[in-house]
Write a structure and sequence with these properties.
With about 450 residues, the chain is an alpha+beta fold. The protein has two domains: about 230 residues, no CATH class; about 150 residues, Heat Shock Protein 90 (2-Layer Sandwich). A five-stranded mixed beta sheet has the order 1-2-3-5-4. The protein is elongated.
Length: about 450
Amino acid sequence: MGIQTIVFSAASVCSGLILGQIAAGSQANRSRGKLLASAIAAAVIFAVFGNVTGVSLNSGIVYVLLIPFLIFFVKMPLLQAGFVLLAAWTYQLAVVDLVERNLFQLAIGQAGLQADRFIELVMELFILLNHLLAVMAAVRLKPVLIPAEVFRRASDGGEGASSYRNALGVSALLIVLMNLFLQYTVIERDFFSTAYRLFITGWAILMLAILLVFLKTFLEQKLTQEKFYLDQQYQQDLLSFFTVIRSQRHDFNFHLTSVYGLLKNKKYAEADAYIGEVVRQVQDVNELLPLAHPALSAMLNTQAEAAKRQDIAIHFSIFDDLRGIPVSVYDVNKILGNLIQNASEELTLLPPADRQLSVEISKEKRYYVIRVKNRTGAGDEQILHMFEPGFSTKGTHEGIGLAGVEKIVKAHYGMIYPELTDGWLTIHVRIPENTEDY
């Protein structure tokens, strides 16, 4: 294999990886160069192996060898990397080998031409042009087969994660079985008649299209079902939140009458104390009203009520309404809810006087920032291990934990890190406002 073959092979593999990445819900523009480097490495390995042994590597084996590249070089999660490579392999078999090469060779044979080196070069250039057009169309249209949210939910360790892993496992098995059939068809196509080659090509593409549509619909239905149950929980939080607001509005006239009576009788000190108590009661709700999505406000209100039942003094500082954050409300609630829950559990180990918790939401330059700060008795050694799966300062911990929060944040190209200062632990979360640049 010469340089020409390496170039065409690298172009084919790189196109498949980019299309597979988009199909698996990853839009990381900055990884295009790394994907190209991985494709070139695969093409070189393919060429060297062929020259040394005289045997061409199967395309499926080539893509399996790329798994370490995607995990350690491109920094892609294992599940998502696996589906990227499955999609790339499917593209190679179904589109490149079974449609383009097969039909091109049939056309050459029907024309009575001899497949010399010039015709092979023309075919490769034709395929290269198709790669370019396919990648340009995919980058523009973003035809996602499996939403990235499916992979996050399968790996976050929370409730229902095993269900998503099972669904992805079944999906992978079906794609592999289909690809094995496609691989057999590609290898044996020269022994088939022209009519049968055309039939088997059309039938294989039809079956593949039906399979992919089924998988996409199936996984989207699971996401919709989970969101339905989440919506039910959020509706309960919203009902509780709006009940508090309606109660405050209902009591407003009584408070106003009481203050008016105190002022009319010149009981200014009593009026001042009374107004202070009213303001204190409504301040907690007012702190949460700036958030753009009611479900966020409702969830934080529920967390605040739970904290107060544990004698935890909680304070919110909302400097941005999170209107433009590129994260679903479900994932934002998971991030905030788990951080507050972890902080509350830590505070229950401390004396009531030290149970202080603050939550800050802001925007700094091009990043949305969440900070959860609480008193802690943890030392540096515990802080170092707090993002490990299963870490907890209490045996009764529930939820996805800090390790799951970290996965959600990193899936959106953000960062999360702890800061321990003078007995105060602050968890910083920073998420870029435009994940398309990553």
